[in-house]
Amino acid sequence: MLDLTYDAPKPKVISGATGDWELVIGLEVHAQVATAAKLFSGASTQFGAEPNSNVAFVDAGMPGMLPVINEGCVAQAVRTGLGLKAEINLWSAFDRKNYFYPDLPQGYQISQLYHPIVGEGEVLVELGNGTARLVRIERIHLEQDAGKSIHDMDPAMSFVDLNRTGVALMEIVSRPDIRGPEEAAAYVGKLRQIMRYLGTCDGNMQNGNLRADVNVSVCRPGDYEKYQATQDFGHLGTRCEIKNMNSMRFIQMAIEYEARRQIALLEDGKSVTQETRLYDPDKNETRSMRSKEEAHDYRYFPDPDLLPLEIEQAWVDDIAASLPELPDAKKARFIADFGLSDYDASVLTAESENAAYFETVADGRDGKLAANWVINELFGRLKKEGHDITQSPVSPAQLGGIIALISSGDISGKIAKDLFEIVYTEGGDPAKIVEDRGMKQVTDTGAIEAAVDAVIAENPAQVEKAKQNPKLAGWFVGQVMKATGGKANPAAVNALVLQKLGL
Amino acid sequence: MSDLTKLKIAEARDALRKGDLTSVELTQACLSAIDAADALNAFVHKTPEIALDQARAADARRGADAPALNGIPLGIKDLFCTKGVPSQAASGILKGFRPEYESTVSANLFADGAVMLGKLNMDEFAMGSSNETSVYGDAVNPWKIDDRMLTPGGSSGGSAAAVAADLCLGATGTDTGGSIRQPAAFTGITGIKPTYGRCSRWGIVAFASSLDQAGPMTKDVRDAAIMLQSMCSHDVKDSTSAALPVPDFEAALTGDIKGKTIGIPKEYRMDGMPQEIEKLWADGTAMLKDAGAKIVDISLPHTKYALPAYYVIAPAEASSNLARYDGVRFGHRAKLAQGDGITEMYEKTRAEGFGPEVQRRVMVGTYVLSAGFYDAYYNRARRVRALIKRDFDLAFEAGVDAILTPATPSSAFGLGEMAEADPIQMYLNDVFTVTVNLAGLPGIAVPAGLGANGLPLGLQLIGRPWEEGDLLNIAYSLERAAGFVAKPSKWW
Q1: Distance of alpha carbon A279 from its chain centroid, rounded?
Q2: Of these residues, B103, B155, B200, B241, which one is catalytic?
């Protein structure tokens, strides 16, 4: 399917006082499952509802209430696993992770520690210039989200909103295969892209629907290769986990800061303490949240309220059969079928809606021309208005119509831009607009010839100059275009000007 | 009037159908009996208005088509959440809690026309074997020796006392390690714990989720069959509820057990077992043999590990299930001092709200699940549990239909008698019953005789999974042969 080849990028290297250091990064990405109801209750997952309005009795940890698995969430996890080329475990089980916090009403989070629903997979993370990192996925498990504690509304009290409590999350755990801040952000971006294609997570980082815990360590050049050869973590440095990042930019800044902090410690003869840290974007620094010694003992054990989750291969096969074409395959196909550049194909496949729009525009037309128009004109115009493709006033059929008029020679590229603006602001059928407003390109050689003759006759001095300096032919072309209101076919004008000037 | 309360469910049902009796009359008789029995401390919350409303509604629909329990007054163990009615699991931490929902089991009973008289005493969170850990104080056994007040057993002590004292016609119980069967045996009544998954756990305050099952506590086996029938259902709100049809249990009571094979497990013959328990067991065996059953000696070799395994698994689950009682959303919250934070709120609330036995089990459970001990305790206990289940599977595969054991190692003991004892002495009460919960099997306690001290003694029958009908029929045969009719003399 994917016949593109990439080279592995170089790891990020930071030069310290005692030599070079490399970064080793692994991520735990928490993706909110796109479903209407929570993982174990029928309560809604709608964002922005009144506090504590999307709460079933079981979400509030009421006595005697029991969780019941939502099949839709399971299907979404399987779908995500298949999208990451991962192994699907037909038998998985839920465990309780026990800790006390007011936004965790049951006193435990239901998760999958021992038997996750999705096993090993992989993600190709492209980094430009023909490089890409293949990141191994260790596992994906389903778990409940916690609620929200609000501490800054009252000096003496804290408030709790349980709307988010029990919402399904997929925790996607990577191997420590990521070697720099940009790679980490690109990896999250790629996961986001794939899940948006699959419709399993909306990827909205601002709302917290996609967030990441980032594990960072540093090592000397050569150590990582030893780890790769042996899978022995002893070759790597002590890691710190930076919790709950929900911005690509902050992920990069936090990794950069954390790596430098660790290097400074090590070069100072101190050691890195394994701990959980928080990133403060205002100060651009990470701070210790709790050390390994203070780490919670979560007392995981199998949740006795739930039976093991057993799914059938036929059901998995049905989901597999319903998967859309995924970004890597689509991009490869766009390059192969439409002759697009790697860059253009990447831009067009970033969002499946963009890709679908482009394909409709390009259908039966010049793919490269279609790509230029979609990326430069349409995306440029939409971006100016702060709109995305789903809000485009120009339909793919309309843009396709404009491109068809260019290809047939009915309008020039310049007229096409005017036409695009008319269609964007006023709407309408491009062919009819061209007809009604007389925008059609003049290809009648007689008419063009007359215009060329007139310009030559009116500018004898320029003619003499042009004969000395053939580059001035362009000036005549411009005058003819002006005289014809831009409707003359520029190629025909050019040919006639050269001929008449005897160049 | 007071004689009405002595009716069994089947008798009352027939009288109500025939019109010889109204549910209002019957209910009023029970309410009067309850009011006169405060000394037993069986009912901790009385619901006369609800009861009379339900009784009137039952009378309005009486007749041949009336539902199975139409107009039958019952007591409900405080562990069941009953809508709008205090449901505290006999714990201080749930002070003032009135659920906005009705447990599936109680809803099933009410849908079948049953009348709720009130909520019944129990050990706090069902943790105990003597009903001495209740925030409401001890429930008292209607049986007594001279002036010694006795335990009705636990945790369903209030249910047992209420049924034995004819305060209600039947009661719900729950059984995690013997909490239906032990109190039934201590009070001379019948109690069955069905197969795990028969009764929905939805709306029952959880103690140990993988072991908890609801069941009826009644005056005889027929009543147990009738009431169990109504309590069981497949409930999609409980993932561990079995998607199986509920057979007609009463119809299974033919009394014919010819050709049935009854296993006698040698491991239940404990060292130091009182002579009268030995004799009761031997007599029960002989009765079943006389009724045409084949008696075989069997071995359940892992029995001796059951009690330790149970006292790892049950507290482990409880420590997690009880984490929700944190003072944040409902129930008791401690008064906080200036500067106290969330940790102090948790600590003070739970220290004040939970009694010592619950605290002990939460601590044991937290310990056995903690890092470094999980494998040694919890995982090992789970493996033991699997072996215990396998012991039973092998016995049933070899053709055993039911297993006969004593229900308890002794008759009811005195209230306060164990106060100074090692908690393990109390846990030994469950020695014959916990295996059944660990294996998820149905078990029934049937009164089979009186001890030398004049107190009732019970035998336990353990059945094949999902074969409650067969189990009830064997119990019915045993009941008929034993002819246990003794009643406590009224002193309260």
Answers
A1: 23
A2: B155
Give φ, ψ of A211 to 5 degrees.
-145, 160
Q: Are A192 and A252 in a shared domain?
A: yes
CA distance B117 to A392: 67
A contact set with B (CB within 8 A): 57, 60-69, 96, 98, 100-102, 105-108, 158, 160, 297, 299-301, 304-307
Q: Residue A497 pLDDT > 90, yes or no?
A: no
Q: With an 8 Å Cβ cutoff, are A63 and B324 in contact?
A: yes
Do A219 and A142 fall within a single domain? yes
ipTM of the complex: 0.96
- Tokens for B475, please give them: 């119990």
Q: Which two tokens stand for residue A214?
A: 């980032």
Preceding omega of B155 cis (within 30 degrees of 0): yes
What DSSP string describes A331-396? HHHHHHHH---HHHHHHHHSSHHHHHHHHHHHTTS-HHHHHHIIIIIIIHHHHHHT--GGG-SS-H
Distance from CA of B209 to the nearest CA of A (A): 6
User: For residue A4, what pLDDT is reported?
Assistant: 55
Tell me the residue range of the domain where A475 lies. 445-501
The answer to whether residues A240 and A339 belong to one domain is no
pTM: 0.92
pLDDT in tens, B249-306: 999 999 999 999 999 999 999 888 899 999 999 999 999 999 999 999 999 999 999 9
Question: Are residues A187 and A247 part of one domain?
Answer: yes
Query: Cα A3 vs. chain centroid, distance in angstroms?
Result: 21
Low-confidence spans in chain B with pLDDT less than 50: 1-2
Measured over all CA atoms, what is the biggest interatomic distance in chain B, rounded to whole angstroms?
A: 73
